Amino acid sequence: MHIRKYDFDYGRRMLMEKAAKGIGSAGVLTSLWPMITKADTPDIKMAYPEELTSIEAHTKGKIKPGDVITADNLEHVEHLLDPIEVIEIREDGRRIKIQETTTDMTDLFEDPFLEATLRNQGRAMVDSDGNVWDQKKGNPLRGGLPFVEPDDGYQAQANINLSWGRHNYQQYGVRDWDLGPDGELQYQYDFVWAELQVNARPDDTSWNGETDMLRYQSVFFTAPNEQSGTSFLNTWPYDQRQFPGLIGYLPAFKRVREYPTNQRFEPLVPGITVFLSNAWAAGDPLATWGNHKIVERKPMLGAARGAWAKDDPNWEPGVHGGPQGKTYWDSVRELVPETIVVDLEPTGYPRSPVGKRRTWFDARNFTHVLSVDYDRKGKVWKNWDAGYAKYEGMKTPEGHTPWSWAYVTSHDIQSGRMSRFHQAKEVTGGYKSEWGTDGDTAYDKYLTTQAMRRLGA
Question: Does the chain have fewer CB atoms within 10 Å around its N or its C terminus?
Answer without folding.
Answer: N
